[in-house]
Amino acid sequence: MYNRLLKIKPLLMLLFLAMLVLIVGCGKNDSANNSTDKGQVKLVFQNIYPDETATNHKVMKKIVNAYMDQHPDVRIDLDSLNIDQQKLKLKTQASGKNLPDIFVVNASAQMKPFVDEGLLAPLDDMLDKNTLRQTFQEGILNYYTFDGKTYALPDGNNIGVMYYNKQIFSDLGLTPPQTFTELIDAVKKIKSEGIIPIAIAEKETWTGSILFMNIVLRTNNGPGFLDDVIAGKKTFHDPAFIEAIEAFEELVDAGAFQEGATTTEYAEAETLFRTGQAAMYYMGTWATSGMETSDHKDYIDVFPFPTVHGKGNVRDFMLAPGSAFAIAQNSPHLEQAKDFLNYFMLQWPKENFEMKAAVGLAQHVDGDFQKAGYSDISINVLNLFQTVQGGDLAFDNTMKPDVAQVHLKAIQRLFVEKVSPQDIADEHQKAFEKSYAQ
Question: Whole-prediction pTM value?
């Protein structure tokens, strides 16, 4: 018996050592050198296209798969999140300086802290290596350029508009409102028929913000309100801001939005409109691609946000230079990441055009939309772009992130409780003074 145990113990020891080597080896593959067990370079591509049924997700997957087919030595892992989730996760990753290889940032003020911390790789060498820079519309890259260096490449260039269901409007004897009073009247009539007047995805707080800021764009009688606040020419107690809060609360009180708006995600809200359950949907024109695939697309049209109490110009829009792709400065595979992003952006306009999703891109599109079979809604949105005279960027693209967070939460509160406009203005002003005094 004892002799048999002596023979077994060495075998057990060898087995233990083999398992230990295997565990250590796996750990090295997964974390030490960012490579796969097949020896491939692994790139993590964090994005904001989580809906697998959405065109932007399908375009992304098609380009990613094509790149991997052409580069079998590279594996691209997708980390797909909604916008608010991605912002939160990226903030955590940035604080630990553990960013994914490729990720999404937003224009201007939102991305500046990442630039200041030296977390983003300049992309000018990639842009100038071939024709990539020339694919972008004139001036669009300025929103992603600091001290002469470009740090991110945008997926779109859009404006905020009101989509509406022509059939619902016709059945109720309504026409697109040209004034805020007409909009309130339309909301009340639509609501009385048991139809959601305006679908909104306020679980993702930026959606209520861009609608609210379009009202500010009107009550301020033109662009520049936030720029004036930053410059010290105005405060958040300005009559234009107070009047905008009052108007927004008037929309809420009229029953403009669906029940549970603050728990509704982006895809849910868009589905409410696309399936005819809601009469209107305020969103950036990137949503047009979703309208193209809707069974109700022949009933969908678009109009600019109306004037508010006689103020504003309907040719001023909320401007939305798109979310943009950046590369981590400390990526262990910086050159491979640049090579992939270069390929991705060159293919982006082509593949979006093929999938009828090329309305509102930041790049030039080579193709005839009508001959390609784009629907009337896409053509009408393209025509609306030609009317733009000016506008403002979103609040969180203009103000520092800490002030933007106060703003987003404050606007979300308006959906669920009655708050004094003066109190909302106070919250904004205190946050602004605290942040900009630093």
Answer: 0.84
